[in-house]
Write a structure and sequence with these properties.
It is a single chain. This protein is mainly beta. It is 9% helix and 51% strand. The chain starts with a helix and ends with a strand.
Length: 263
C-alpha cells in the first residue's frame, strides 16, 4: 500500500520518538483553547485545541526518494475518538482510512485491497511505533506534555517565543511555542541519535479556528522526516477549509465486495 504510506507518512515518524506522550483531554466547546500545564513546570505557555468535531480539506504533496505524490485530502475527527482520512485526485477517491483508539481500517481503491486490524500494521508499514494519540496531536499541531516525572527545559528566545525540550527514553523532543497568549506550536523537532531518526514539523499560516473562539490554527504544515533505512521524506500540507462544530460528523467506511484483504 505505497500510496497510503506516502500520504500518511506526513507525521508518523513522530510516533517512533514520542512513544508515551500524554494527550490533552477535550472538555470545552468548539474552537476553544486548552491551556497546557506541566505538572512540575507551570511556566510552559502552550495552548491546545479543544473541540467536539473537526473537518479539514486541502492538498498534500509527499516526496520520497525523489518521487512526488500529490493528492486532495479530507480529514474528519471526533476528538480523542476517531480520525477519518480520504485522499484522491480529480474527484476519484484512492484511499480511505479510519483510525480509532485501538484499530486501523484502510481501503485502497487503486489496488482493490483493504486492511482491518491494530496499530501494529502502521508500525510495521513505517518501521516506527504508532498510536492514535500521536496521530491526532500531530495533525492538530498541539503540544505534547512531558510525561510524569520528566522535567522539561524552558528557554525564552527572540520575540518572546518559548523553546521547551525534554528527553523521552533517549529521544529529544523540542517544541517552539509562539509568543504571547497564543502559545501555539510553531515548530516540533524530534531526534533519536541511537536510530538516526529525525523529524521536524513547521506549522504556518495560522488563522482563527472558529470565529467565536479565535484560537490560531495552522492551515499549513511542512514535515521533514529522516530515517536511516528509508532516507528523507518531506510532506507539504495546505488546508483550504477547517471547521469545528458540536454537530456530529459521519465517518463512513464500507469494504467493497471482491477486495483482497492485506495481512
Amino acid at each position: 500500500m505505497n500510496k497510503f504510506s506516502l500520504l500518511l507518512a506526513l507525521g508518523l515518524g513522530l510516533a517512533g520518538c514520542a512513544r508515551k506522550a500524554l494527550p490533552t483531554k477535550s472538555m470545552a466547546g468548539p474552537g476553544t483553547s486548552t491551556p497546557v500545564t506541566e505538572p512540575t513546570l507551570p511556566s510552559v505557555k502552550a495552548q491546545n485545541t479543544d473541540f467536539d468535531f473537526l473537518s479539514m480539506k486541502g492538498k498534500a504533496q509527499v516526496t520520497m526518494k525523489g518521487d512526488k505524490k500529490g493528492a486532495n485530502i479530507a480529514v474528519r475527527m471526533r476528538r480523542d475518538s476517531i480520525i477519518w482520512v480520504s485522499a484522491g485526485l480529480a474527484g476519484f477517491e484512492g484511499v480511505r482510512a479510519v483510525l480509532t483508539r485501538d484499530s486501523v481500517h484502510v481501503i485502497n481503491r487503486l489496488e482493490k485491497t483493504y486492511f482491518s486490524g491494530g496499530y501494529d500494521y502502521l508500525s510495521k508499514l513505517l518501521n516506527v511505533p504508532v498510536s492514535f494519540e500521536q496521530m491526532q496531536t500531530l495533525l492538530l499541531g498541539d503540544y505534547l506534555p512531558a510525561p510524569t516525572g520528566t522535567q522539561p527545559t524552558v528557554a525564552t528566545e527572540e520575540a518572546g517565543r518559548q523553546r521547551v525540550s525534554y528527553a523521552l527514553r533517549g529521544v529529544l523532543v523540542e517544541h517552539l511555542l509562539q509568543a504571547g497568549n497564543t502559545g501555539r506550536v510553531q515548530q516540533l523537532h524530534v531526534s533519536d541519535n541511537a536510530t538516526k531518526r529525525n523529524l521536524t514539523v513547521d506549522y504556518t499560516d495560522f488563522q482563527p479556528l472558529d470565529p467565536a473562539q479565535p484560537l490560531p490554527f495552522a492551515h499549513a504544515a511542512f514535515i521533514q522526516a529522516q530515517q536511516a533505512a528509508a532516507g528523507a521524506v518531506t510532506a507539504a500540507i495546505n488546508y483550504t477549509k477547517v471547521e469545528v462544530s458540536r454537530a456530529r460528523l459521519s465517518f463512513p467506511f464500507d469494504t467493497p465486495k471482491g477486495y483482497r484483504r492485506m495481512r
